[in-house]
Design a protein that fits this description.
This protein has about 210 residues and is an alpha+beta fold. The protein has 3 domains: about 1-75, no CATH class; about 80-115, no CATH class; about 120-195. Helix content is about 50%, strand content about 15%. The chain has 5 helices and 5 strands. The chain has helices at about 1-50, 60-75, 80-90, 95-110, 185-195; strands at about 120-125, 135-140, 155-160, 170-175, 180. It has a 5-stranded antiparallel beta sheet. Strand 3 (about 155-160) and strand 4 (about 170-175) form a beta hairpin. Helix 1 (about 1-50) crosses helix 2. The longest helix is centred in the first third of the chain and has 48 residues, at about 1-50. It is flat, with a radius of gyration of 24 Å. The two termini are about 25 Å apart. This is DUF502 domain-containing protein.
Length: about 210
């Protein structure tokens, strides 16, 4: 009995340590992968441009960061912004590319909060006539430009993210089935993806 309790305690300690270090490990992993991509991509360019023995490892990463900052700065200039829109309009005319690029662009704008939309709202969705509810994000509330039969003035599209994995599904439901809540999109996604796991001591016993 004592050994069983001891094993359970060790397991809980290990699990807490894993949950504490996992987000940090994943963040470091992604940053390192991005840095390696910068180094391998821009490093080749610098080696070709710079004289022999002038290149220092890490300069590719620095150049990549500088280019991203310059891109963010230049995109605010009228001429550059207009040119970028022309490039986007060209991409949106290419089959398959326009679907992929358009979807990724809308998703990035939605998650970053740069998309100006009144539909950017976190809600609780009621399932049937029960008290069961799901956390979701309203992605569309205006169906005036949508195909006939997809929705009306009383319809909203709500994205329901899955827990512990990347993905989810979109439901088209009446407005009466949702209840807006005061929560940021990033916080709502964190709650949904982690399964609303709480670190508060008071949540251990319900």
């Amino acid at each position: 009995m004592a050994k069983s309790i001891e094993k359970t305690s060790i397991y809980k300690i290990f699990l807490k340590g894993l949950l504490a270090i996992l987000p940090l490990f994943i963040t470091i992993y992604l940053v390192v992968k991005l840095g390696k991509w910068f180094e391998s991509t821009f490093g080749v360019i610098l080696r070709w441009i710079l004289p022999v023995n002038w290149y220092i490892p890490g300069m590719g990463v620095v150049l990549g960061v500088i280019l991203i900052l310059l891109m963010g700065l230049f995109i605010q200039v009228w001429f550059v912004r207009k040119t970028w829109r022309w490039i986007e309009s060209f991409l949106e005319k290419i089959p398959l590319v326009k679907e992929i690029y358009g979807s990724l662009k809308q998703l990035a704008q939605y998650l970053s909060g740069t998309q100006k939309s009144s539909s950017n709202q976190v809600v609780m969705v009621t399932i049937g006539d029960s008290d069961t509810r799901l956390l979701g994000l309203v992605t569309r509330s205006d169906f005036s430009d949508a195909p006939e039969g997809m929705g009306n003035n009383e319809t909203v599209a709500v994205y329901l993210p899955w827990s512990y994995q990347v993905g989810g599904f979109t439901v088209y439901i009446p407005r009466s089935k949702i209840k807006p809540i005061n929560m940021k999109t990033e916080e709502a996604l964190r709650w949904a993806i982690t399964g609303a796991v709480s670190a508060k001591e008071g949540d251990k016993n319900i």
